[in-house]
Specification:
Layout lengths: L6 H19 L7 H12 L5 H16 L3 H4 L1 H9 L1 H11 L1 H4 L6 H24 L8 H27 L12 H19 L6 H10 L1 H11 L1 H17 L11 H83 L3 H25 L2 H6 L1 H7 L1 H9 L6 E3 L7 H21 L4 E10 L2 E10 L8 H17 L3 E5 L2 E8 L30
Parallel strand pairs: 1-2
Antiparallel strand pairs: 2-3, 3-5, 4-5
Length: 525
């Protein structure tokens, strides 16, 4: 048959057989851990090793049921032992498409299908192959066996799945140990307290066992699927191990009722944890996408500004060369005795040189690199352009912009000039510009307000929509926002404290900045 025997497979078969044997020693029909070991082994091992799991189960059943041959017959021992692991492997194989999904709710389907199928097979083999069929009702026995198997699967299989997916997220251990330790410690305390209660205190014992669900719920809400995958097995394990068991087939109705309640609670917690993890993944993907988009927008703005900076420096070099050439011409005219022509030419050269440099500074404010945003606004060409309109009052500038990164200062500069240009184009009346730099908690930033001086005059809807469209990009790139209210356009730009002069620091949500309608001076301190 061209079969290759692998030593790791034989070792796996031995380990599986011993695991089932050990789990059987602490199990009851209403709390059957070998069923959980069976499903967990199939989940942990790749399909190529499943034949060795079947071999290990045959070995386990051989030592367990060989002494029963005389009582129940050889046919029952063989057939009742041959089909359980293959059926579970088939069920898991049929769920392979669901296993690839984001949520882990499929585990409940695997547990329920395996528990029902195995219980039906066991009871059917007993009914048809025992020399004397059992007297108890078929349906009731199947239901009790299925409940015990289902509880056993929920006790072991989530831990196996948690181990399989331990590397699916890089930050799975972040904030994991402290809430897990506290929840498990509280659950164990309640479980041990319930176990030491007198036998006649069934109500008090049940109450303490039900209270163990509260830490499990809290852990699920905190950690999502991983919290449920730890809390539900521990919850079932504590209740199962503290159930009185004089012999394996004994039945405790009070404990069984509590186990059913905890099984339903466990299913609810696994579903809840899966949904929490599912939506957390979607939120994280969207949040990472937003951060990447903001980072790309910020880098794009900085790159475009650096291109403008190089262009401005080239224009300054051209201007310096023109000034030198004109000075040489003026000096030559003076030597030739043409003083009047030389004076006129010098005056014209000075005027045009000043205008050329003003226009160059509007391409890129080189003064901002060395002296900061406020100096670039007051000494550059933009200030002269504002004065020529006779509509822009002297800017009110507060704080130290040099504490901010160059990228943020450039974004604020462009946003401010664009906002003024927009109001000059679409509105009438005097315009006032205000800016304040400061910090809020860990965040540094600037609040810019461009408003009509007449507070009774409100901006038009067209102006507001155009302001949002033109200015929001730069603000969002630095974790800020653009607001249009009444007669003003307010812009907030934020960044984390920088560690390098040109560090594009990580920005915060704009909710951290408490702006008010009374002005930007109250936004940052």
């Amino acid at each position: 048959m061209n079969l290759r025997i692998e030593p790791i497979g034989l070792a796996l078969a031995v380990i599986y057989a011993f695991a089932c044997w050990g789990a059987r020693q602490v199990s009851l029909d209403q709390f059957y851990l070998p069923a959980g070991i069976r499903v967990a082994a199939v989940l942990l091992c790749p399909p190529r090793l499943w034949p060795y799991l079947i071999l290990g189960e045959y070995a386990y059943f051989a030592q367990l049921r060989y002494p029963m041959v005389d009582k129940y017959g050889t046919a029952w021992v063989i057939f009742a032992s041959a089909f359980l692991m293959p059926i579970v492997a088939l069920i898991v194989h049929l769920h392979r498409k669901m296993i690839a999904a984001t949520t882990n709710v499929w585990l409940i389907s695997v547990a329920a299908s395996s528990a029902v199928a195995i219980s039906l097979l066991n009871r059917s083999f007993s009914q048809f192959l025992w020399p004397t069929p059992p007297d108890n009702a078929f349906v009731a026995t199947v239901a009790r066996y299925a409940a015990g198997d289902f509880i056993g699967i929920l006790t072991v299989a989530p831990l196996a799945l948690l181990w399989v997916r331990r590397r699916s997220e890089s930050d799975w251990a972040a904030g994991f140990l402290k809430p897990t330790g506290m929840a498990l410690g509280l659950m164990m305390l309640l479980g041990v307290s319930a176990a030491f209660l007198p036998a006649d205190s069934a109500t008090a014992r049940t109450s303490l066992q039900v209270l163990m669900a509260l830490p499990a719920i809290a852990l699920t809400c905190i950690l999502g699927w991983r919290g449920a995958a730890i809390a539900v097995p521990v919850l079932n394990l504590i209740i199962g191990l503290t159930t009185p068991k004089p012999y394996p087939s004994s039945f405790d109705p009070h404990a069984f009722t509590t186990q059913l309640i905890m099984a339903i609670t466990g299913v609810a917690l696994l579903v809840l944890g899966s949904r929490i993890t599912y939506y957390y993944h979607h939120y994280k993907i969207r949040d990472d996408g937003e951060k990447n988009a903001i980072k790309l927008a910020r880098n794009s703005h900085v790159a475009s500004e650096m291109g403008l900076r190089e262009r401005a420096l080239d224009l300054r070099k051209i201007g310096d060369g023109m000034d030198i050439s004109l000075n040489e011409v003026v000096n030559w005219l003076k030597l030739q005795g043409h003083h009047e022509i030389a004076g006129g030419l010098l005056h014209t050269a000075v005027v045009h040189s000043r205008q050329f440099r003003a226009q160059t500074s509007m391409v890129y404010p080189t003064a901002l690199d060395h002296l900061g945003l406020y100096v670039a606004l007051q000494a550059g060409g933009v200030r002269e352009a504002w004065e020529l309109t006779h509509r822009v009052t002297r800017p009110r500038l507060e704080g130290d912009p040099c504490q901010l990164s160059i990228g943020l200062q450039l974004a604020a500069y462009r946003a401010m000039t664009d906002a003024v240009a927009l109001l000059l184009e679409t509105e009438s009346g005097q315009i006032q510009v205000r800016a304040r730099c400061g910090r809020f908690g860990r965040y540094r930033g600037i609040v810019v307000t461009v408003a009509l001086l007449d507070a009774a005059y409100a901006l038009s809807e067209t102006t507001m929509s155009m302001a949002i469209e033109r200015l929001a990009g730069r603000a969002l790139a630095y974790g800020g926002v653009v607001q249009c209210r009444r007669n003003r356009v307010r812009m907030v730009l934020l960044e984390m404290p920088r560690t390098a002069p040109h560090d594009a620091a990580h920005s915060s949500p704009v909710e951290y900045v408490k702006t008010t309608d009374r002005g930007s001076s109250q936004a940052l301190t």
